[in-house]
């Protein structure tokens, strides 16, 4: 696969995982861009707050990105693969969505047979809630309990939950859960934060569902995040060891 | 004669009432309670008063101790920061609710009770905080029974009911001392006694995957132990949890048969304090 | 090859310590462990504690842990929260507590308070009593079930203990137990063998123990009594 390919599909259909494996296979320049999508009524879909983008950049360090408003990627690039991700329910691109680029191909989940078939949910009329967690670090045992409660309905009827989570040992994980799939994907980031204060990489939680108890979510999350003093206790031995931890979970 | 043993009531009045009804219906009139009358649940005074009014011999659980002594449970007994914060919140709420009279009652409870060859404790004979889980190393578990001088040891604290019997046990050993010359080590074999641990589960915070309250009935004459599961009005307790302002996940966990207090993973952990 | 010397119960007696050190010469010991009871109520402990902190040139530095006497002193001097030297008071009365306080200069407390409860080296735990209690007195007559429990608690194959003052080794070498569990999920049975493990009492004072962790070889030794040696020397 090469050229500029637009990949569309409903939220949760597996676009990002598919894009990641195509990009990882590709020998040559790689470009990625995520566009803001629309729901079946043409309303903008809730953004994931850059989670997918941050994760892909972690996995493929030399991945290039199209800056906002830029046109097609440099056409002169030999062997270039540019994948443009677009959250979209139907295969037709609404006219209201000014793409500002001309893809060589357009693949849509549910229509094109070369894409994996996966059941997806109807995400219309779901509440979406997101919490910025940059610089925050979770107590590992607490994030396990919290995630268990979250995806099992302790804070409302959750359909989808995604988070980039920082742990005290410097590791980061992408948590990815959908009601139609069994279990959560826990994907380790390649990059490990240094043991000097709070990590600066993107970190947030995005939840989609019905009747979300956002106050309850915030109370629990506050009880899961560790203080400066606790973080320092965990980081001090790592500083003396010097060696970074492997980014495996 | 049959007697009932219950544990870990955790201020859950609906569950306690249902269990006592079940015991009454079976015509069992000796009851022993293994502590943790309060903590996490919404009706600490009501539960303590019901136990007192029925005159149930009770030993002290870790929560009963903590409520009197101040927060004494070691941090390491909490499996996570989240569990610790919630535990502390439940502790402070309970301490504020309990009447002085009921606190005095909890303070007066003994650490263990003994009847013939039966010994009753909350966690283990060593500590109210020690968990005797069903898969604990068998020799170490048997040591708890033997060191307590018990034929049968009744405990709670794990919230999971079980009966564990140790038999056909022996230890062979070789003893050496400075005065034993080369090759003069003495050998010895010790046969271990047959003993049982009975865990009564939990009335107020079951942790067996279902929502039913659990307790046990031991019939000394027939030498049987029955693990009883009793359905109760879970929603009544959940409503009371929310009305009391306790963390809503407590109600959610109870309703789904997940424990609302998580347990430390290390079964043999004993608080050093 | 590594060789350890394990001693305990010096009771503040520098002469005894020097006698053991002298006995250790030519025994190729590379690590010296002092399993508690460095101090005692019978004499001024300062000379011994200073020597332990500042060994002479060419002398082994002892790796020390605290024992029952240190625990009593630390409690009485307020290093253990509300607790005081109740065990000592119960056993020997108020005079013994006062004697202990006199025997150890308060200036030495910080060093004592920094001592550890025990060491775990290779698959060996080195403790004064056991992890159940610093005063746990294990000996050759202790119930084997109790010894097995103390080994299990530390999850080690060798437990070196000193509280009883006895030199002994009990090797658990056979046997087993059947445990049958019934719960709400059903019934299951498991047969478990006695793990091959050992509890070693290192002795007290002049009686000490040599151990080669590589070969598992044990040697119970007694250093010559310094009082008798001296008498002979001046005779």
The computed structural class of chain A is alpha/beta
Q: How many strand units of chain A?
A: 10
* Largest sheet: spatial strand order of chain A: 3-2-4-1-5
* Gyration radius of chain A, in Å: 19 Å
Q: What would the CATH topology of the largest domain in chain A be?
A: Hypothetical Protein Yjia, Chain: A,domain 2
Give an overview of the whole structure.
The complex is a heterotrimer of chains A (249), B (273) and C (235). In chain A, 23% of the residues lie in helices and 24% in strands. Chain A is of the alpha/beta class. In chain A, the strands form 2 sheets. Chain A has a 5-stranded parallel β-sheet, covered by helices on one side. A 5-stranded antiparallel β-sheet of chain A has the order 6-10-7-8-9, with no helix packed on it. The longest helix of chain A has 14 residues, at 228-241. Residues 245-249 of chain A have low confidence and may be disordered. Chain B has a single domain (2-165, 194-256), classed as Purple Acid Phosphatase, chain A, domain 2, CATH 3.60.21.10. Chain B has helices at 13-25, 44-53, 62-69, 81-97, 100-107, 138-147, 234-243, 248-256, and strands spanning 2-6, 31-33, 112-115, 118-121, 152-155, 162-176, 186-192, 195-199, 213-219, 224-230. Chain B has a 6-stranded mixed β-sheet with strand order 3-4-5-8-6-7, with helices on one face. In chain B, β1, α1 and β2 form a beta-alpha-beta unit. The longest helix of chain B is centred in the N-terminal third of the chain and has 17 residues, at 81-97. Chain C has 235 residues and is of the alpha/beta class. Chain C has a single domain, classed as Metallo-dependent phosphatases (Purple Acid Phosphatase, chain A, domain 2). Chain C has helices spanning 14-24, 46-53, 68-76, 86-92, 94-103, 109-113, 144-154, 226-234; strands spanning 4-7, 31-35, 62-65, 118-121, 124-127, 158-161, 167-183, 186-193, 197-202, 207-212, 217-222. In chain C, the strands form 2 sheets. Chain C has a 6-stranded mixed β-sheet with strand order 4-5-6-9-7-8, with helices on one face. In chain C, strands 3-2-1-10-11 form a 5-stranded mixed β-sheet, with helices on one face. In chain C, α4 (86-92) crosses α5. The radius of gyration of chain C is 20 Å and the shape is globular. Chain C starts with a strand and ends with a helix. Chains in contact: A-B, B-C. The A-B interface holds A 139, 141-142, 144-146, 149, 152-154, 213, 216, 219-220, 223-224, 226, 230 and B 79-83, 85-86, 247-249, 252-253, 256, 258, 262.
């Amino acid at each position: 696969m090469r050229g500029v390919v637009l990949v569309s599909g409903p939220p949760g259909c597996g676009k990002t995982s598919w894009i990641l494996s195509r990009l990882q296979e590709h020998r040559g320049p790689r470009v990625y861009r995520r566009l803001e999508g629309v729901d079946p009524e043409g309303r903008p879909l809730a953004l994931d707050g850059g989670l997918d983008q941050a994760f892909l950049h972690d996995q493929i360090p030399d991945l290039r990105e199209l800056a906002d408003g830029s046109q097609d990627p440099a056409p002169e690039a030999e062997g270039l693969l540019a994948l443009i991700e677009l959250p979209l329910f139907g295969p037709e691109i609404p006219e209201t969505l000014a793409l500002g680029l001309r893809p060589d191909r357009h693949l849509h989940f549910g229509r094109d047979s070369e894409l994996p078939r996966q059941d997806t949910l109807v995400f219309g009329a779901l509440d979406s809630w997101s919490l910025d967690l940059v610089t925050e670090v979770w107590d590992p045992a607490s994030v396990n309990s919290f995630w268990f409660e979250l995806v099992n309905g302790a804070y409302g009827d959750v359909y989808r939950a995604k988070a980039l989570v920082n742990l005290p040992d410097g590791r980061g994980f992408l948590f990815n859960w959908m009601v139609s799939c069994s279990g959560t994907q826990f994907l380790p980031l390649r990059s490990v934060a240094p043991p000097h204060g709070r990590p600066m990489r993107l970190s947030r939680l995005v939840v989609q569902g019905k009747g979300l108890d956002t106050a309850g979510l915030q109370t629990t999350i506050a009880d899961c995040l560790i203080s400066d003093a606790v973080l320092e206790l965990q980081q001090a031995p790592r500083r003396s060891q010097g060696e970074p931890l492997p980014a495996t979970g | 004669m049959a007697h009932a043993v219950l544990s870990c009531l955790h201020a859950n009045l609906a569950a306690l009432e249902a269990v006592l009804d079940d015991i009454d219906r079976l015509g069992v009139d000796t009851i022993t309670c293994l502590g943790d009358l309060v903590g996490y649940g919404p009706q600490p005074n009501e539960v303590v008063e019901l136990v007192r009014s029925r005159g149930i011999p009770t030993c002290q659980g870790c929560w009963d101790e903590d409520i009197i002594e101040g927060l004494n449970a070691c941090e390491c007994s909490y499996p996570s920061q989240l569990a610790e914060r919630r535990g502390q919140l439940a502790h402070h709420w309970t301490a504020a609710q309990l009447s002085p009279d009921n606190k005095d009652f909890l303070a007066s409870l003994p650490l263990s009770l003994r009847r013939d060859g039966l010994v009753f404790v909350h966690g283990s004979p060593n500590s109210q905080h020690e968990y005797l889980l069903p898969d604990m190393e068998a020799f170490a578990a048997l040591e708890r029974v033997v060191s307590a001088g018990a034929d049968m040891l009744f405990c709670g604290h794990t919230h999971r009911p079980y009966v564990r019997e140790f038999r056909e046990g022996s230890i062979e050993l070789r003893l050496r001392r400075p005065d034993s010359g080369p090759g003069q080590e003495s050998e010895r074999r010790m046969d271990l006694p047959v003993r049982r641990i009975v865990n009564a589960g939990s009335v107020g915070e079951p942790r067996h995957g279902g929502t039913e309250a659990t307790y046990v009935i031991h019939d000394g004459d027939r030498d049987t132990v029955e693990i009883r599961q009793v359905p109760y009005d879970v929603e009544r307790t959940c409503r009371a949890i929310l009305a009391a302002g306790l963390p809503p996940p407590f109600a959610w966990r109870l309703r789904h048969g997940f424990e609302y207090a998580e347990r430390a993973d290390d079964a043999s952990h004993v608080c050093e304090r | 090859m590594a060789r350890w010397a394990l001693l305990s119960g010096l009771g503040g007696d520098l002469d005894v310590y020097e006698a053991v050190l002298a006995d250790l010469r030519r025994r190729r010991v590379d690590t010296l462990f002092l399993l508690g009871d460095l101090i005692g109520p019978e004499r001024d402990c300062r000379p011994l504690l200073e020597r332990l902190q500042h060994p002479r040139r060419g002398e082994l530095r002892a790796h020390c842990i605290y024992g029952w006497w240190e625990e009593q002193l630390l409690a009485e001097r307020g290093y253990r929260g509300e607790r005081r030297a109740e065990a000592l008071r119960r056993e020997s009365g108020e005079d013994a507590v006062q004697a202990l306080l006199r025997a150890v200069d308060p200036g030495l407390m910080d060093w004592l308070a920094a001592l550890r409860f025990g060491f775990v080296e290779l698959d060996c735990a080195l403790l004064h009593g056991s992890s159940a209690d610093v005063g746990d007195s294990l000996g050759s007559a202790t119930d084997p079930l109790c010894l097995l429990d103390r080994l299990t608690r530390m999850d080690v194959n060798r437990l070196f203990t000193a509280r009883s003052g006895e030199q002994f080794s009990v090797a658990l070498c056979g046997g087993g137990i059947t445990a049958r569990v019934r719960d709400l999920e059903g019934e299951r049975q498991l047969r478990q063998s006695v793990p091959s493990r050992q509890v070693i009492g290192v002795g007290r004072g002049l009686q000490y123990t040599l151990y080669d962790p590589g070969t598992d070889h044990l040697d119970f030794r007694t250093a010559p009594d310094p009082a008798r040696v001296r008498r002979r020397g001046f005779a």
